[in-house]
């Protein structure tokens, strides 16, 4: 019984790192990390479709064996390193992309956007392009 309680407590402790943001919390975090207001609804839509606003999401393996990490579902084939050392194009570990502090995820997402636009994310292409974007009018600064 003691072991079961200990394992449950450990599981809760490890899971506490994960966070699901409300829509307005996401908007505040995006603003804090310098995302442009004129694209804010696109970014919110992307995050909602890719990760449901959760910071701890790791995808199932993609067809090529790669995985997507964190709030922005950033792929480990090109952008983050699965070793203990930061690397690849964003110079981060994939684990860093799972943090509740989204600064590294945000910087990497902006780098991806600079190179490829929103088309780098299937969640945005399939669910946000040419479709109604989320209402963020109630999300104050």
UniProtKB/TrEMBL annotation:
Domain (Glycosyl hydrolases family 22 (GH22)): residue spans on this chain: 90-108
EC numbers for this chain: 3.2.1.17
Signal peptide per UniProt: 1-18
CDD domains to which the protein is assigned, alphabetical: LYZ_C_invert (cd16899)
Statement: the UniProt record of this protein carries the keyword Hydrolase: yes
Annotated family: Belongs to the glycosyl hydrolase 22 family.
Descriptive protein name: Lysozyme
